[in-house]
Amino acid sequence: MGNFFNTLFELIEENTEAFNIIIGAVIFIFLTITRNRFANALLSVLSKMVFKNDEVKKQSLINSLKRPVALFVMVLGLFIGIYINVKSSAVVHSFKIISILIICWGVVNFLSDNMVNILHIDNNSKLNTTALKFISNIMKIVVIAFAVVMIISELGYNINGLLTGLGVGGLAVSLAAQDAVSNLISGFIIVTEKPFKVGDYVEVASVQGTIQEVTMRSTILRTLDDSLVTIPNSSITNEKIINISKMEKRLLDLEYNLTYSTSNELLKKCQEDIKNYLKENENIIDFPIRVEFEKLDSSSLNLNVFCYTSITDIHKFKALLSEINYNIRNIIEKNGAEFAFPSTSVYIEKK
Fold first, then answer.
1. CA 20 to 30 Å from 141, out of 83, 92, 261, 274?
2. DSSP one-letter code for 284
3. CA dihedral defined by 202, 207, 209, 210, rounded to 10 degrees?
4. Can you list the pairs that 270-274 forms with residues at least 24 positions away whose Cβ atoms lie under 8 Å?
5. Cα separations (Å) of 274 from 203, 264, 270, 271, 321?
6. Each residue of 12-66: pLDDT tens digit?
């Protein structure tokens, strides 16, 4: 047995280059054949560390990184096979550059497939879909930029001048596109804070309408007269936002003017009948309901009706308002009272 090993070692020493080629080829072939198994094993461990018991997220991570990791294993086998035979800095630099490209590819794949899981955003709405695309594209650009800088550095070029130039250029672009950048940042704020969603009826920047679309630059509303209004996002975030669709109830604050010939008894009878009508109306919230003789105006006695309705939809609310006005008018006229209108009395003094 000892003679066998001595003979084997002598044979290896005499044919070192040939054995190195064989070993390198074996390593490359082995890692190429088993690259998918290595990738699955590595990603299974990684997915358990990142997502623990969420099988859907685990599978999403494995699917997005399987091909890049498998390719990296194969490239690693090729590098080892070559480096055993050719110990050159060029081989090392080439391996680093290819590795950077593969890592960049893997990160971009991961961001594309797992952005929803990373940001915990519901991707069902148009608003959040826009946000996902915007954030995903920004992060991809950043990753690719880092990869390009690292590759340039590996090629032996001085990147300090390049970084300085990019900084100055970026400053110039940001100053020139200040409004656009402001709108993008405002769009991101709208997406993250979610003051409204597509389909909500809102009042923003002194405009009332239904949200039709939200992009990272502007928000589009459709007003009641069916016009489309495009509002820059920076204008929206700088002003108050009233989300009318989020109302749980609507205020009814109405005023009815009666003539001065209306007696106190008749005025009280009208108050009582209006209040009873509102209490019996199923669309009116029970409390508070106030019908008050508010003031003696210059040409009328003013009755104020104050209550809330559970109807928040703008179209249904307008229909309810018409119905209430019709019925209160009938109550007032049925009791024999008359509505006042602005008038002026002129007195002529006798001389």
1. 92
2. B
3. -60
4. 270/303, 270/331, 270/332, 270/335, 270/337, 271/303, 273/331, 273/335, 274/303, 274/305, 274/328, 274/331, 274/332
5. 32, 15, 6, 5, 14
6. 555 566 777 788 788 888 888 988 888 888 888 888 887 777 777 778 778 888 8
d(CA 317, CA 309): 8
Model pTM score: 0.52
Burial 122-154 (b: 16+ CB within 10 A, else e): eeeeebbbbbbebbbeebbeebeeebeebbeeb
Q: Give residues with Cβ within 8 angstroms of 98, minimum separation 6.
A: 75
Listed residue (251, 255, 254) closest to 309, CA to CA: 251
Does residue 68 have a cis peptide bond before it, meaning omega lies within 30 degrees of 0?
A: no
